[in-house]
Amino acid sequence: MTRALSFLRGLVHLWPVVLVFVAWDAWVVLNGYTSTVAPRPFPVVTDVVIGFGEYLPYISYTLGVALVGLLGGTLVGFAAAVVVWSSAALAGVVTPAALIIRSVPITALIPIIARIVGYGDPAVLTSTVLICFFPAFVFTLSGLAAIPASGHDLFRVLGGNKLQVLARLGVLYAVPNLMVSVRITAPTAVLAAMLAEFLMGAHGLGALFSESRSYMDMERAWGVALVATTVSVFVFLGARALENRVVARVT
Amino acid sequence: MSTSTIRTAQAEVDRPAARPGAAVTIRGAEKVFSLGRGRTLQALAEVDLEIAEGEFVAIIGPSGCGKSTVLRLAAGLDTPTNGAIEVFGDDPHRLAKQHRLGVAFQEHALLPWASVRANIALPFQVAGRRVDKARVDELIQLVGLVGFEDARPKQLSGGMRQRASIARALALSPDLLLLDEPFGALDAVTRRRMNAELARIWGEEKITTILVTHDVDEALILADRVVVMTGRPGRIRKIAKVDFPRPRGFETTRSPEFHDLVDELTALLDQVEGVDD
Q: Which CATH superfamily is domain B3-100+176-276 in?
């Protein structure tokens, strides 16, 4: 009984989702749009539910690319931050490069990336890595800069060298910051993967969206958007859960 | 035979290889900090202090009198602007490089992700030595943290964290132990108990120790000599020899002689603070 009640109470929190669907339906009906312009929610949801088996390979591809890109971007950003922290000379090289990568819109970068690493999968993955790289870089750097003075003092009186300060102190102090970066970039990684797929990929939700649109299969196209949103939300929730666990372990 | 002769004799027995004479020599040390825009702050003015091997010296003084600066100079964490400091006849930071220095900081500086055991084992790892598990266990017992070996710092009380921090400072059996108000944040009862424990630990290890504190009782319970410092810039006002027999239990702390010395030093501190105001 109590379990049922708490389940119902949990459902109440989903009111924004319900609101979105109601507003969507009202918007289509009130404007008198045909399904070619904008389909109503019900056929879209039906398409997703009935055709879920057809969505599945695309979902798993996009999810895979997003996660690998997230991991890769985080590692590259982390490594770049460590390099910048360790050496002022290298900081002068890495920091401007990182800023430039950050400042150029990813949509403008994708064709260039594709030219360099090849169309298709490598370009999709590289774009995702680039999107995830900068937050990891900035957050790790701020984590390393926030090593408390007493920590530095401790390693000095213990006779530790800079490498030990980094390995035994800095890396672990940077972990909570790094997890914040993972949480905020995780949904963006899905977006970046889809964008790259949309522009040049043959696989994934982005490609499925582009393909459905060209066949005027609007239920499928909107279904992809719906699925992508759901995937993003779950990736975010997963990242947040991971962050909570990891931060509890290192602080 | 006075207590100090007994102690010196013991120290020689315990450390036959160590150099005789002064462990720490501070000569005319001045420290000026730059505050930026050409402004400076003189923390220390001409401090002279010699600390013998095996001696326990407490430095007391009002907040901001430069007592922690003296400790940081001895630890090699800061260098004097003028004057000189030698630790065992060498540059202070050499002692740290040789892993012969133990420091317990005001903020315990324990690694939050590591257990008590791992925190105490850290000096071994940083020194590139195999962790002496027996020594770590012995220290855990010495500071009374048995049963909390696997606890992380956030699971411990303030007093327990300080004890873990002291155990870490003792891990490599250092030649010099520096304690920077390690009990500053503790309540009076815990503090008294920690003083008794520190006195016991020191009795067993007989390490040359400098303790910075603003608690006169604490200084008198623990130290062979008490250095009273004045406010900014920090100068040594008086060095008092403390001859009460050890261990200094309630009989000592309730004695009129103890109270007289507490009153005398407190009066000095009051004057100092008066000047500061």
A: P-loop containing nucleotide triphosphate hydrolases (3.40.50.300)
